[in-house]
Write a structure and sequence with these properties.
single chain; mainly beta; 5-stranded antiparallel beta sheet
Length: 185
């Protein structure tokens, strides 16, 4: 299953708008057939806040369906599937409440985002509950992945955990390649 950018349908009038942020039959028809079991919501106070590159390893690996509900983010999916011809490569999409777009990130991909505005909120669905002993990641500034983060002049805002994650080089991926290389969004 590839990484997918999902465009939601909005219905607006002079009151504002309405959108279905998740509709299992429609998302399944579009290739997102996960059973989501947990919803997460993050708030980032400052622009330039980086969260990631995060993932859970098997047997508790997670697929995610990510949307930005306030502010704007640049959202990233990094191919971490052993044997993939696109291993270590990434795709990115800007998400905001203005478009309502969502990014589907399947199992086998790392997830990261950077806030482009202060007071940004992100919500995402996960296909497996959070299991701390399976939670890990790759360092945000890994030279192999080489993400060009759109950062403010003062640089990134990072957690202690994200500062000390390992680099991709030397990391043994537990994720199997499914025959579908990462494609541009």
């Amino acid at each position: 299953m590839p990484v997918k950018l999902i465009h939601t349908r909005r219905f607006g009038d002079d009151r504002g708008w309405f959108v279905e942020t998740y509709h299992r039959p429609r998302w399944s028809a579009d290739g997102v057939a996960e059973e989501f079991v947990q919803d997460n919501h993050s708030y980032s106070k400052l622009a330039g806040t980086i969260r990631g590159i995060h993932f859970q390893v098997p047997p508790h690996a997670q697929a995610k369906l990510v949307r930005c509900t306030r502010g704007r983010i640049m959202d990233y999916a990094v191919d971490l599937r052993a044997g993939s011809p696109t291993y270590g490569r990434h795709v990115a999409a800007e998400l905001s409440p203005d478009t309502g777009d969502q990014l589907y990130i399947p199992v086998g991909f790392g997830h990261a985002f950077v806030t482009l505005e202060p007071d940004t909120e992100v919500m995402y669905k996960a296909s497996h509950i959070y299991v701390p002993e399976c939670d890990t990641g790759i360092r945000w500034d890994c030279p192999t992945i080489a993400i060009e983060w759109p950062l403010p002049p003062e640089g990134p805002v990072l957690s202690d955990k994200d500062r000390t994650l390992p680099l991709l080089a030397g990391w043994d991926s537990p994720f199997a390649y499914d025959g579908v290389p990462l494609q541009p969004l």
